[in-house]
Design brief:
4 helices; elongated; about 200 residues; Jelly Rolls; 4-stranded antiparallel beta sheet; alpha+beta; 6-stranded antiparallel beta sheet
């Protein structure tokens, strides 16, 4: 009986683990009701008294968060191996913007930013050479716009050369690494089931 149960359990956990999505993109926006200190976006975000609108996204490309608003983009993802990552934000951000990685400020601009939907524009906020260890990470981007509603986008690189639009599918394409333990569990389960079927015949 134990020879039947163990392979079945191993197969179950292998299949469940293989289908868990670790990436999540969330955008939050709120009306600017108090002063924006573009040297401290976290405090500025918390100090607003307006209602927060929250949406989960599959991608963040040419997104319009609204005029007279402060926004926070949060990306939760996990890497399967160590690597050097880069991030770029093309924004409509009259008050500037700031990138945080795992709670640490990695780049900010305090000038009026409008990238004109052109990644080669000097108003693009760029942060390169961020060394990430294998495991979970959180990227946060804050920005604030005083008047208009231009589109904003974020892109990333995990190898320093190839840029990808920020999307769940794009992140998972470069972070999905086959785990030996999962492959071993799956193999064990399939072999165990095959052996049990032969014995039953």
């Amino acid at each position: 009986m134990l020879r039947i149960i163990l392979p079945t359990i191993a197969l179950f956990f292998a299949l469940v683990s293989a289908n868990v999505s670790a990436s999540l993109i969330t955008i939050e926006a709120r009306e600017i009701t108090n002063t924006v200190d573009n040297t401290n976006f976290i405090t500025s975000w918390s100090s607003q008294s307006s209602t927060v609108t929250t949406n989960s996204l599959s991608e963040f490309e040419l997104y319009q968060s609204g005029g007279n608003s402060i926004s926070r983009l949060t990306v939760d993802f996990a890497t399967g191996e160590n690597g050097s990552w880069g991030f770029e934000a093309g924004l409509d951000a009259g008050y500037g913007a700031a990138f945080y990685l795992d709670g640490v400020l990695i780049g900010n601009r305090t000038d009026n930013l409008w990238w004109s939907t052109d990644w080669s524009h000097p108003d693009v906020l760029s942060v390169l050479g961020n060394n990430l260890n294998s495991g979970p990470h959180r990227l946060e981007l804050y920005w604030a716009e005083n008047c208009c509603n231009g589109p904003s986008s974020v892109r990333f690189t995990s190898d320093g050369t190839s840029w990808n639009p920020l999307s769940i599918s794009g992140i998972e394409a470069v972070t999905t690494v086959p785990e030996p333990s999962m492959a071993w569990l799956l193999g064990l389960g399939l072999v165990g089931l095959a052996v049990n079927r032969r014995k039953q015949k």
